[in-house]
Design brief:
There is one protein chain. The chain is of the alpha/beta class. It is about 40% helix and about 15% strand. The chain has helices at about 5-10, 25-30, 55-65, 75-85, 100-110, 125-135, 150-160, 180-190, 245-250, 260-270, 275-300, 320-325, 350-370; strands at about 45, 95, 115-120, 140-145, 165-170, 195-200, 220-225, 240, 300-305, 310-315, 330, 335, 345-350. Strands 2-8-7-6-5-3-4 form a 7-stranded mixed beta sheet, sandwiched between helices. Strand 9 and strand 10 form a beta hairpin. Helix 4 (about 75-85) packs parallel to helix 10 and helix 11 runs parallel beside helix 13 (about 350-370). The model has no long low-confidence stretch (mean pLDDT about 95).
């Protein structure tokens, strides 16, 4: 029965009919993201967070937050100047955001019209899908082949005159695959009419960046997060770096108080403590090597990663493995619903102790579920 028929029927019966409120068609059609965050009082090898702690300097700064300080609206601009100087940029080339999730949303809001196309390579971070779908139904996906490497040639071929936004994660989530700087700049050149946003959330575990190119590549925006190596996931702070002419439009659609004051207070001291970030990145580099060596010994296939996680090919017993690991107090992330990732499970790499615990639990769990290659 249609709404119109319901209204006519209701009137004949003398019943007052109230038309239900419905959202935009794009909201009805878009997929929802439901992070499985419940019951995470265990070793967190599921969400690619820092598994240890933030810098001791950040903890010290948190203790200095005053009651009066919590009553004031946050001021972002001064901290943006500090962040810009840290990354060798100008203040108008930096915008701080409520995590990279908001950064993606703001870029989509600023640059996508209803009839525009956006382009991603799958599998990749699901929030691209969510934010693009709010603005346009024309999200084009280029699926990686069985190797899960970035499909550069097919990606370039998928660019059309209607492409207005390109989103690329390097290193990619959930694969850990990287796209070379040469290829990323080639994408910018192939789509001059589009904003190209490079998501470098896992930069510290790889080391190659395009952030130095934002002044000379007019359609380039780079996203960074402080949730991973810096250990500030709970404070929700990220950053966009880009051509100042581009960022002024993103700034225009951004709330003036989008980043909370506690995060803004802590970011400068987190940036100062390069030694801590370097130490944590080195822990991940060493742990990643230990993990892949352990997976080889166990006979588990995996995707070569340049991030703080490894994607393992478990096959039909993927859900059983996740539950067996949870029973041992270790959380993994099942990625089997991602395009091309059926049977894959992701494990986060943290500090040495956590890698040791993760490997021990993995060995026991694989044996318990009767897994065989």
């Amino acid at each position: 029965m249609t709404i119109a028929t319901e209204i006519v029927t209701a009137r004949k019966l003398g019943v007052k009919y109230v038309t239900p409120v419905v959202p935009r068609r794009a909201v009805l059609a878009m997929a929802e993201y439901h992070p499985p965050l419940a019951g995470r009082d265990a070793l967190r090898l599921d969400f690619n967070e820092n598994t240890f702690a933030a810098s001791p300097k950040v903890i010290e700064r948190l203790r200095e937050v005053t009651a009066e300080g919590l009553t004031k609206y946050p001021e972002r601009e001064g901290v943006e100047r500090i962040a810009a100087a840290h990354f060798g940029l100008q203040a108008d080339q930096v915008l701080l955001t409520n995590g990279v999730d908001e950064a993606i949303h703001l870029v989509c809001t600023a640059f996508l019209e209803e009839d525009d196309e956006a382009l991603i390579a799958t599998p990749t971070f699901f929030m691209y899908d969510v934010s693009v779908s709010m603005m346009t139904a024309h999200l084009q996906r280029v699926q990686s082949d069985a190797t899960l490497e970035f499909p550069f040639e097919r990606f370039i071929e998928a660019i059309t005159p209607k492409t207005k936004l390109v989103l690329v994660a390097s290193p990619n989530n959930p694969t850990g695959a990287v796209v070379s700087r040469e290829h990323l700049l080639a994408i910018c050149g192939a789509a001059p009419q589009a904003v190209v946003m490079i998501d470098e959330a896992y930069y510290h575990f790889h080391g190659e960046t395009t952030i130095g190119d934002v002044a000379t590549v007019p359609n380039l925006i780079v996203a960074r997060t402080f949730s991973k190596a810096y250990g500030l996931a709970n404070l929700r702070i990220g950053m966009l770096a880009g051509n100042a002419d581009l960022l002024k439009y993103v700034r225009k659609v951004c709330s003036p108080y989008n980043v909370n004051g506690v995060a803004l207070d802590c970011l400068p001291v987190a940036l100062e403590d390069d030694a801590y970030v370097q130490w944590y990145a080195e822990q991940v580099h060493a742990g990643r090597e230990r993990m892949v060596d352990g997976l080889r010994e166990l006979g588990v296939d995996f995707f070569p990663s340049q991030a703080n996680f490894v994607l393992m090919k478990i096959g039909a017993k993927h859900a059983e493995l996740v539950e067996a690991m949870r029973a041992r107090g270790v959380l993994l992330r099942d990625r089997s619903t991602d395009p091309g990732c059926d049977g894959y499970v992701r494990i986060t790499i943290g500090v040495e102790e956590h890698v040791t615990r993760g490997l021990a639990a993995l060995k026991e769990s694989l044996a318990e579920i009767g897994w065989a290659r």
